[in-house]
Specification:
The protein is mainly alpha-helical. The protein is 73% helix and 4% strand. The radius of gyration is 21 Å and the shape is elongated.
């Protein structure tokens, strides 16, 4: 089987480079997505266990709704950077692709602007999440019912903060890539 060294291959298009820092960054981004995927399995086990207990014992397991809500938000943010990296965010693709074909430099600049706005928005979300994390950590915030089952919320908030911060940085990486290609006129994908 032949290995393709073409820079236009699928791996190069997704931003996977052979450079050390880029490879480490790709490992971090993809690693968070793997953790998010594993958490989907954990969430499925929690929900299925709750269904079984409701049918067998007529009562719900403690923490299921609270834990499910926190895990679901955590999954979204853990997988967000990979979504940005793979260029899979939901957006209107009516104007940008024709502009990129006809005016590659302008298209790259518009894409860079989109990515910088995305980085700014996620930066604001990370900033507000940091405040929530600090409050939860310092006050010993927990979910559940005291005396039955409780869990601290700060580990979940820390993972959400990590995911949104990495996604914001990935937006900056994408914007830098767009700006580099606007200098050369090449397609940044």
């Amino acid at each position: 089987m032949k290995t393709e060294k073409n820079p236009n291959s699928a791996r190069a298009k997704r931003g996977h480079s052979g450079h050390g820092i880029a490879r480490i960054w790709a490992f971090v981004v993809e690693g968070l997505a793997v953790i998010g995927t594993l958490m989907i399995g954990v969430l499925m086990v929690i929900i299925c266990s709750d269904i079984i207990f409701r049918n067998l014992l007529g009562a719900s397991l403690p923490l299921v709704s609270e834990l499910g809500a926190l895990v679901l938000v955590m999954i979204v943010y853990l997988q967000l950077a990979t979504t940005v990296r793979a260029n899979r965010l939901a957006r209107t693709e009516i104007f940008l692709p024709p502009i990129k074909r006809r005016f590659p430099k302008l298209g790259a600049l518009i894409a860079a602007l989109f990515n910088l706005v995305g980085a700014a928005m996620l930066g604001l979300i990370a900033w507000s999440t940091l405040r929530i994390f600090e409050k939860d950590f310092n006050s010993g915030e927990f979910i559940g019912v005291t005396g039955i089952a409780t869990l601290p919320t700060w580990p979940f908030r820390a993972m959400i903060l990590l995911g949104v911060t990495v996604a914001a940085i990935e937006f900056i990486v994408r914007a830098a890539s767009n700006l580099r290609t606007s200098d050369t006129g090449a397609d940044p994908r």
